[in-house]
Specification:
Shape: elongated
Low-confidence stretches: 6-13
Mean pLDDT: 85
Strand order of the largest sheet: 1-2
Radius of gyration: 20 Å
């Protein structure tokens, strides 16, 4: 018995919507993995701390890793929120999904690519290993937005 309410079925996703969803899910997994790796590095591996010692000890300075870990956690948390919101828009078939995909991608570019430019004393402040997952996630988002653009063109 349906209590007089007809069950609504969502329209079947098109091939490009499935492609966008797949790219966004891969981006979500890459963001989660990068954030988890940052936590593992802080708690167990201490790779960033060793990197900062190697970078700053020769010049007699001290590099504090806590703010850099905080930066990585904030990028990861905001990234996961953006992935969640964009996945919801794509799965619902919202006309604004493409626009918000581009907006999220543009806003994410600065915090994702900034570690590549943050350099002191001839070396990167954040090693590429800690930011690579976020770069991969951004590329997944780019692929997903391109797939959405083809669908609506």
């Amino acid at each position: 018995m349906t209590n007089g309410i007809a069950a609504r079925r969502a329209p079947a996703p098109s091939g490009t919507a499935r492609g966008t969803t797949g790219a966004y899910v891969l981006g979500t997994l890459a963001t989660a993995a990068a954030t988890a790796y940052a936590a593992a590095d802080q708690l167990v591996l201490h790779g960033l701390e060793a990197h900062l010692h190697a970078l700053y000890d020769p010049v007699g300075k001290y590099g504090e890793p806590a703010p850099l870990y905080g930066y990585l956690y904030v990028v990861g948390a905001l990234g996961l929120l953006c992935w969640w919101a964009n996945l919801r828009l794509v799965r619902r078939g919202a006309p604004s999904a493409r626009l918000w995909g581009w907006v999220s991608l543009a806003l994410a570019a600065l915090p994702v690519f900034a570690p590549l430019a943050m350099r002191e004393y001839g070396g990167a402040v954040i090693p590429l290993g800690l930011s690579a997952g976020f770069l991969v996630a951004w590329l997944c988002g780019f692929a997903g937005v391109l797939a959405l653009g083809r669908r609506q063109a």
